[in-house]
Description:
- This protein is α+β, with helices and mostly antiparallel strands.
- It has helices spanning 2-16, 19-26, 30-44, 60-85, 100-117, 169-175, 220-228, 242-247, 275-288; strands spanning 49-51, 56-58, 92-97, 121-126, 141-145, 154-167, 189-190, 197-202, 205-210, 233-237, 251-253, 258-268.
- It folds into 3 domains: 2-85, Orthogonal Bundle (Arc Repressor Mutant, subunit A), CATH 1.10.10; 92-151 and 270-288, Periplasmic binding protein-like II (D-Maltodextrin-Binding Protein, domain 2), CATH 3.40.190; 161-262, D-Maltodextrin-Binding Protein, domain 2 (3-Layer(aba) Sandwich), CATH 3.40.190.290.
- The longest helix is centred in the first third of the chain and has 26 residues, at 60-85.
- It starts with a helix and ends with a helix.
- Residues 1-59 form the HTH lysR-type domain.
- Keywords: DNA-binding, Transcription, Transcription regulation.
Amino acid sequence: MSHLNDMALFVEVARARSFRKAAEALGMPNSTLSRRISELEKAIGLRLLHRTTRRIELTEAGQLYYERSKRIVEEARLAHEQLGAMLEQPSGVLRVSLPVDFAIFYLTPIIADFAQHYPGITFEFDLTPRRVDLIAEPFDVAIRMGKLEDSGLIARLIGRHSRYLYASPAYLQATGETATPADLAERECICMPRAATWNLHQGTDRMDVGVRGRFTVNSVGMIRALAVNHQGIALLPERIVADDLASGKLQRILPEWEGSPVSIYAVTETRLIPAKTQRFIEFLSSRLVET
C-alpha cells in the first residue's frame, strides 16, 4: 500500500514538474515529498527524475513509470469516489462531446432535468461535429449516433430511435401521392452522406430503396429544415420533427413503413468511470428508451 501511495505522490510531481508545486497541491512539506520519491526510486532501483535547481525532468524510466502509474492512480481514485458516491451526490465538471443537432433538438431538456437532480455537477459541452479523441483530450464521455468504428473504446448502447418518412404538405401536393416505397426512387430525397439506400421495413417485410436528390447533408437539423421548406422527403426520428408534425409543417408518408433505427451510444475511454459520468449515462439511458 505504501508503494501505491508513493506512486500517487510521484504522479503529482511528474505532472507539476516541480516538487514545490506538487507539495503545495498535496498539502505536505517539500522535504517529505522529496524523501518519499527518493525512497520510491531506491525501491524500484532506477532513477525516475533528473533534478535541477529550476525544474525536474523525467528520465526514460520515469516517463515509462509515469505512463503506467497515472492510470493505476486514477483508477484507484475513481474506485474510492464511486464508493463515496453511494453516500453523497456526485460533483465536479462533466465534459461531454455531443452530436450537434441531437443535442439541440432533443437532449437539452433532458440535460436540464439532469442538472436539477445533481446540483453539484457543472458542465462543459463540445458540440463540434468532429470526433473528439477520448484518450488524448479531457472528455468524460462522448454521445455518438449510428454505426461506431472499432476504436478499442468502451461503448454502451443507451437508446434507439426509429425513423419515419416525412415531407411538407406543399411538396406532397406538387409531386402527387407516394403510394409505395418504390415510388421514393422518383422523388427528391434529402440524404445523409453515404446513405443513398434507405432500409425500410413493415413488420417482417423489408425493402432497400435506392434514393437520390439534390441535397446531401450531414446535419439532421438542416435535413429537417429543408423538408419543412418543401425540398423533398426526409427519413428522420419522430422526436426530431415532433413540433413540425404538431404545427402541420410536415406530415408522415407511407405510415406503415419505417426506417432502420438509429443506435445511440455513450462512449468512454475505460469501464471504470467517475460517479458523475455514470449517473449521466444512466439518466440519458432511462430517458432514451423507446416506449
